[in-house]
Amino acid sequence: MTMLLEQHIEELRLELREAIDPVERREIEIELELARAELAVIIAEQDGWFTSEPPF
Question: Is the pTM of this model over 0.90?
Answer without folding.
Answer: no
